[in-house]
């Protein structure tokens, strides 16, 4: 498994990361350079008030669709957004090994700055850990990697259940890419949990966890995963500026 780990860690993962960063840079450049994509910032008001209008518009652009989705489909909203999206993103960004893998060689100063935000595994939450100067403190007893993984995996299973239902009833069209994306995330969850708890050979589980995670990143630009990574935040910024124009 050393060969799989070497390929995943030193070739596949860096290539995936470069593609992810390049795609995000392209999206931002497109908004800045294309006249049709670049919104006009409202004029005639002081810069401070224009900025406040933008912040209000940006918040509305995020919260209003969430409210509509929560009202129209509360179960789907809980499974997809609250459980899968929020818990998975928190696990990706705040789990200690993830932070170390992403920042130790690229931005070590940022790793030191964010070290107080790290979320541990439950078996390392000891009395000493509760007295450390971390942001979460005793909340680590509940807010830990296992809890986030279980909640995120539950949300993923709910999404898979909806997709199977849609496929059986043909009420909503689902393409092959949806199932490929869900399969990759499912395998990344399983291998990551197995590596963290040594439910399988650690080196083997870690190697395949990196492989599946890298494949997800490589697949992002060509799938609906591009929505939360690329389109969502750039789109909300543009929407926020447009909404601030209406109010300004």
TrEMBL record:
InterPro entries: NarG-like_sf. It comes from the Archaea. The chain crosses the membrane at residues 6-26, 47-68, 74-95, 107-125, 145-167, 179-199, 205-222. Keywords: Membrane, Transmembrane, Transmembrane helix. This is NarG-like domain-containing protein.
